[in-house]
Amino acid sequence: MTTQRIRKPALAALAAASIFAAGCGGSAEDDVKDTVKDLAAAAKDKDAEKFCGFLSKKALDEIDGGCEKTLTGEPLDTLAKDAPDPDEIKFDKVTVKDEKATVTIDGEEDPTKMVKEDGEWKFSP
Fold first, then answer.
1. Per-residue pLDDT of the chain (125 residues; tens, 9 = 90+)
2. pTM score
3. CA angle, corner 110, sides to 103 and 85, nearest 5?
4. Are 85 and 71 in contact, with CB atoms under 8 Å apart?
Protein backbone atom coordinates (compact mmCIF):
# COMPACT_ATOMS: atom_id res chain seq x y z
CA MET A 1 0.00 0.00 0.00
CA THR A 2 1.31 3.41 -0.85
CA THR A 3 1.54 6.34 1.51
CA GLN A 4 -0.87 8.17 -0.79
CA ARG A 5 -3.61 5.58 -0.12
CA ILE A 6 -3.43 5.98 3.67
CA ARG A 7 -3.11 9.72 3.41
CA LYS A 8 -6.47 10.10 1.68
CA PRO A 9 -8.64 9.30 4.72
CA ALA A 10 -6.06 9.79 7.45
CA LEU A 11 -4.50 13.08 6.41
CA ALA A 12 -7.88 14.43 5.44
CA ALA A 13 -8.83 13.79 9.02
CA LEU A 14 -5.82 15.63 10.29
CA ALA A 15 -5.77 18.40 7.74
CA ALA A 16 -9.29 19.15 8.74
CA ALA A 17 -8.25 18.15 12.26
CA SER A 18 -10.94 15.58 12.61
CA ILE A 19 -12.10 13.19 15.32
CA PHE A 20 -11.30 11.11 18.24
CA ALA A 21 -12.94 9.78 21.36
CA ALA A 22 -16.09 11.59 22.34
CA GLY A 23 -15.93 13.61 25.52
CA CYS A 24 -18.25 13.17 28.47
CA GLY A 25 -20.83 15.46 29.96
CA GLY A 26 -20.68 18.36 27.49
CA SER A 27 -22.79 19.39 24.56
CA ALA A 28 -22.62 17.47 21.31
CA GLU A 29 -20.57 20.31 19.85
CA ASP A 30 -18.11 20.08 22.74
CA ASP A 31 -17.87 16.31 22.27
CA VAL A 32 -17.06 16.80 18.58
CA LYS A 33 -14.37 19.38 19.42
CA ASP A 34 -12.85 17.03 22.00
CA THR A 35 -12.79 14.28 19.42
CA VAL A 36 -10.94 16.47 16.92
CA LYS A 37 -8.34 17.34 19.53
CA ASP A 38 -7.97 13.71 20.59
CA LEU A 39 -7.34 12.64 17.00
CA ALA A 40 -4.62 15.24 16.62
CA ALA A 41 -3.08 14.12 19.92
CA ALA A 42 -3.05 10.47 18.84
CA ALA A 43 -1.30 11.42 15.61
CA LYS A 44 1.27 13.58 17.44
CA ASP A 45 1.91 10.69 19.86
CA LYS A 46 2.31 8.28 16.93
CA ASP A 47 -0.36 6.07 18.48
CA ALA A 48 -1.68 4.21 15.43
CA GLU A 49 -4.08 2.05 17.45
CA LYS A 50 -5.72 5.05 19.08
CA PHE A 51 -5.73 7.03 15.82
CA CYS A 52 -7.40 4.20 13.91
CA GLY A 53 -9.98 3.89 16.68
CA PHE A 54 -11.33 7.30 15.75
CA LEU A 55 -11.94 6.52 12.09
CA SER A 56 -15.44 5.57 10.97
CA LYS A 57 -16.14 2.19 9.47
CA LYS A 58 -16.31 3.89 6.07
CA ALA A 59 -12.88 5.50 6.55
CA LEU A 60 -11.37 2.21 7.70
CA ASP A 61 -12.82 0.43 4.66
CA GLU A 62 -10.88 2.85 2.42
CA ILE A 63 -7.54 1.78 3.91
CA ASP A 64 -6.27 -1.31 2.13
CA GLY A 65 -4.41 -3.73 4.38
CA GLY A 66 -5.82 -2.46 7.68
CA CYS A 67 -5.30 0.84 9.41
CA GLU A 68 -2.78 -0.07 12.11
CA LYS A 69 -0.72 -2.22 9.77
CA THR A 70 -0.66 0.56 7.20
CA LEU A 71 0.19 3.25 9.75
CA THR A 72 3.71 2.12 10.46
CA GLY A 73 6.99 3.81 9.69
CA GLU A 74 6.87 6.69 7.25
CA PRO A 75 3.06 7.10 7.06
CA LEU A 76 2.83 7.40 10.85
CA ASP A 77 5.81 9.78 10.95
CA THR A 78 4.11 11.94 8.31
CA LEU A 79 0.85 12.02 10.27
CA ALA A 80 2.72 13.02 13.43
CA LYS A 81 4.58 15.77 11.59
CA ASP A 82 1.46 17.16 9.88
CA ALA A 83 -0.87 16.94 12.89
CA PRO A 84 -1.78 20.24 14.52
CA ASP A 85 -1.06 20.84 18.19
CA PRO A 86 -4.34 19.84 19.89
CA ASP A 87 -4.20 22.86 22.20
CA GLU A 88 -3.87 25.26 19.28
CA ILE A 89 -6.81 24.06 17.17
CA LYS A 90 -9.30 26.88 16.63
CA PHE A 91 -12.82 26.00 15.55
CA ASP A 92 -14.71 28.28 13.17
CA LYS A 93 -17.95 26.31 13.26
CA VAL A 94 -19.33 23.02 14.55
CA THR A 95 -22.72 21.86 13.29
CA VAL A 96 -24.34 18.75 14.76
CA LYS A 97 -27.53 17.22 13.40
CA ASP A 98 -28.61 13.87 14.76
CA GLU A 99 -25.72 11.44 14.24
CA LYS A 100 -23.71 13.64 11.86
CA ALA A 101 -21.45 16.62 12.41
CA THR A 102 -19.52 19.06 10.28
CA VAL A 103 -16.48 20.84 11.69
CA THR A 104 -14.77 23.84 10.17
CA ILE A 105 -11.30 24.54 11.52
CA ASP A 106 -9.73 27.99 11.38
CA GLY A 107 -7.38 28.13 8.39
CA GLU A 108 -8.81 25.05 6.64
CA GLU A 109 -10.88 25.32 3.47
CA ASP A 110 -12.71 22.03 3.60
CA PRO A 111 -14.97 21.08 6.51
CA THR A 112 -14.48 17.79 8.30
CA LYS A 113 -17.35 15.33 8.38
CA MET A 114 -18.01 13.15 11.37
CA VAL A 115 -20.52 10.49 12.29
CA LYS A 116 -21.56 9.00 15.59
CA GLU A 117 -20.92 5.26 15.72
CA ASP A 118 -21.46 3.18 18.84
CA GLY A 119 -21.87 6.37 20.87
CA GLU A 120 -18.58 7.96 19.77
CA TRP A 121 -17.77 10.58 17.15
CA LYS A 122 -15.66 9.30 14.27
CA PHE A 123 -14.04 10.92 11.23
CA SER A 124 -15.94 10.05 8.08
CA PRO A 125 -14.73 10.82 4.55
1. 444 444 445 545 544 443 333 334 579 999 999 999 999 999 999 999 999 999 999 999 998 888 988 888 888 899 899 888 999 999 999 999 999 999 999 888 889 999 999 999 999 98
2. 0.76
3. 65
4. no
**Segments forming the whole domain that contains residue 79:** 3-123
What's the number of CA atoms in the CB half-sphere (13 Å) around residue 18?
A: 31
For residue 9, the one-letter residue type is: P
Q: How many domains would you assign to the chain?
A: 1
Residue 88: count of CB within 10 angstroms of its CB = 10
pLDDT digits (tens, 9 = 90+) for 84-99: 899 999 999 999 999 9
Rounded CA gap, 21 and 38, in Å? 6
**DSSP type of residue 87:** G
- CATH of residue 8's domain is 3.10.450
User: Helix (H, G, I), strand (E, B), or coil: what is residue 3?
Assistant: helix
Q: What is the DSSP letter of 60?
A: H
